[in-house]
Structure formats: C-alpha cells, structure tokens
C-alpha cells in the first residue's frame, strides 16, 4: 500500500490522498495531513478508510507519542486540545473484520514568538529617521523577522544588527 499526494491549484490548493489498493483486500487507510497548531488549540483529525471487500469497518485512533486526549478513538474525525508542547503522533487503524491497516499523522505544536519594543510610540519628523530596538524570542527556536505592517506613507523598516535593532524612516 502506498499513499501519494497531488496538489491541485486554483482558487485553493489542497492535497488529495491517492490510495494504492493492495491485492490482499486489506482496507486502505489515511490518517490525514500533518498539522501545525498553537498550544491549547482544538485539533480536528480527518481520517479516511476504504474497504476493498465492501464490509463495514471499525476504526481506532491511538496516540503513538506525545500527549492527547481524543474526543473519540472510534470515529474517523475525532478532536483534541493541543498540549503545551509537541509533537503528537497519532495512528489510525481500520479493521474490516479480517484484516487491519494503519496510517500515522503528526500534529506539531508551535508557540508564537514574543516581541518586545522599548516604546509603543515612536515620533519622527517627516524627512528624518528615528531609531528603536525591537527584540523577539521564539520558544520553539524558529527564526524570527520583522515586517512593518503599517506606518506613515513612505516609511521603511530596516534591520541594523543581529540584535534586531531597527530604524524607521519617514519620507
């Protein structure tokens, strides 16, 4: 059995599982795409399973590693609250009464970076510049960068050092 993914691009991009059905007649199962969530977020799993014999199937989710309390272990679409840290690896097993097949998925828990700016207000005269220092830390060790979301017309933000000191230019 193999699972392959194709991407379809248009208004939205999505990945579609393609089941390579085994000659043995075992169920084909797909535990869903990996997800990245914030701590405390509600995670929805979206498993899929196909019986090659047309018989009814039972489903079972198990936590392989990490911490999660599933809303149900016997449905294709359980939910759980993301733990404070991750990842959480989950296995979906489908059984058609005579054979079982399993698939795993991973839920990664990612903390938002913490940003600190010395002053919440920066005053600058048109045509001059003002310097301020912004720092950011990320508990997951991810790289952080700064983007000027809003400001006066013509304002730019430029990095001055590895310490994330930035300069706001207003023209």
Describe the model:
By secondary structure, the protein is mostly beta strands. Helix content is 0%, strand content 45%. The protein is built from no helices and 14 strands. Strands 4-10-9-7 form a 4-stranded mixed sheet, with no helix packed on it. Strands 11-12-14-13 form a 4-stranded antiparallel sheet, with no helix packed on it. A hairpin with a 5-residue loop joins β13 and β14. The radius of gyration is 24 Å and the shape is elongated. The N and C termini lie far apart (61 Å). The N terminus and C terminus are likely disordered.
Tell me the number of helical segments per DSSP (H or I, 4 or more residues long). Answer: 0
Order of helices and strands: EEEEEEEEEEEEEE
The end-to-end span amounts to 61 Å
Question: What is the typical, i.e. mean, pLDDT?
Answer: 78
Strand order of the largest sheet: 4-10-9-7
Count of DSSP E strands? Answer: 14
Strand fraction = over 45%
Low-confidence stretches: 1-14, 161-171
Which of globular, elongated, flat, extended, rod-shaped describes the shape? Answer: elongated
Topology at a glance:
Elements: E1 2-8, E2 14-20, E3 28-30, E4 35-37, E5 42-44, E6 48-50, E7 58-65, E8 79-81, E9 88-95, E10 100-109, E11 114-117, E12 129-137, E13 156-159, E14 165-169
Parallel strand pairs: 4-10
Antiparallel strand pairs: 1-2, 3-6, 5-8, 7-9, 9-10, 11-12, 12-14, 13-14
């Amino acid at each position: 059995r193999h699972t392959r993914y194709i991407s379809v691009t248009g208004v939205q991009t999505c990945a579609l599982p393609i089941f390579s059905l085994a000659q043995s007649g075992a169920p084909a199962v797909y535990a869903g795409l990996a997800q990245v969530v914030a701590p405390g977020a509600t995670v929805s799993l979206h498993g899929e399973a196909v019986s090659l014999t047309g018989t009814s199937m039972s489903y079972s989710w198990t936590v392989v590693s990490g911490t999660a309390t599933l809303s149900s272990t016997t449905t294709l679409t359980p939910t759980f609250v993301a733990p404070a840290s991750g990842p959480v690896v989950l296995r979906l097993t489908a059984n058609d009464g005579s054979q079982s097949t399993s698939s795993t998925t991973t839920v990664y828990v990612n903390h938002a970076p913490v940003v600190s700016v010395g002053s919440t207000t920066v005053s600058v005269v048109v045509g001059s510049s003002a310097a301020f220092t912004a720092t950011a830390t990320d508990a997951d060790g991810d790289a952080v960068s700064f983007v000027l979301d809003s400001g006066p017309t013509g304002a730019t933000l430029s990095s001055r050092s590895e310490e994330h000191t930035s300069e706001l230019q207003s023209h």
